[in-house]
Design goal:
Layout (H helix, E strand, L loop, with lengths): L12 H9 L3 H14 L5 E7 L5 H9 L2 E8 L2 H14 L5 E5 L12 E7 L8 H11 E12 L5 H12 L4 H13 L3 H10 L6 E4 L4 E7 L11
Parallel strand pairs: 1-2, 1-4, 2-3, 4-5
Antiparallel strand pairs: 5-7, 6-7
Length: 229
């Protein structure tokens, strides 16, 4: 099926709250566990979480990696407010700094992070290269990278099946957002093409579940910081 764009930001308060209240513990903790298993030596330094949403993943990283300082960025004010609440409630304000900012060209220093992580942001981007350019711009040479997102099913019917399987007990607004996100997502082939085109072909790109792809590895040391013409 063809890609169907959805809004770039989850700026509606009801949508943001439904997302924050959804049962994503297994997916979110699995994302953090995958990072820890993939990069066992990456136990200190600076990390940026692109599209941090309500902050659950940033908090989990702070708990799993006490030597890491995290900048959690989101462009939607309701998500930023929820993330700030989550960080405060977890008592990790000293190591998780929530920023309201929007791609492209985030107001963060060039090559300033040892790790770049992101879960479920890429499918929101009308132009995915805006995202991959930011990964290259912000990461230090050799930085660890872990990106995960949904992949687009072969048909609307299959998307509905996935929603029913994993979100049948969620609020309708969450079910609708999940369906729209599946329709807006990229295929594994498209993601592989994107990272190759941006000079990131050395990163591993593979399926992580029946609805997620994952890209992981280290930023190359010679990748151009500006996109190719």
């Amino acid at each position: 099926m063809d890609r169907v764009l959805e809004p770039e930001l989850m700026a509606n308060e009801a949508q943001a709250l439904a997302y924050a209240q959804a049962d994503l513990e297994q997916v979110n903790q699995g994302f953090v566990d995958r990072y820890v298993a993939s990069f066992p030596r990456a136990v200190a330094g600076t990390m940026v979480d692109l599209g941090c949403g309500p902050g659950d993943i940033a908090v989990r990283f702070a708990r799993a990696l006490p030597g890491v300082t995290i900048t959690a960025v989101d462009g939607a004010p309701p998500m930023v407010a929820l993330a700030q609440q989550a960080v405060k409630a977890a008592g990790v304000e000293d190591r998780v700094h929530v920023r309201h900012a929007r791609l492209p060209m985030l107001p963060l220093p060039l090559q300033s992070f040892d790790a770049i992580v992101s879960n479920s942001l890429v499918h929101h981007m009308p132009d995915p290269y805006v995202f991959w350019n930011e990964v290259v711009r912000l990461g230090r040479p050799g930085a660890t990278v872990l990106i995960m997102d949904l992949f687009r099913p072969e048909s609307p019917a299959r998307a509905r099946e996935i929603v029913e399987k994993y979100a049948a007990s969620e609020a309708k607004v969450m079910q609708d957002d999940f369906y729209n996100s599946l329709c807006a997502a990229f295929t594994l082939r498209e993601i592989r093409s994107q990272i190759r085109s941006r000079g990131l072909g050395g990163l591993v790109c593979e399926l992580a579940s029946d609805r997620h792809w994952v890209v992981w590895g280290h930023l190359p040391r010679g990748v151009p910081r500006t996109p190719p013409p």
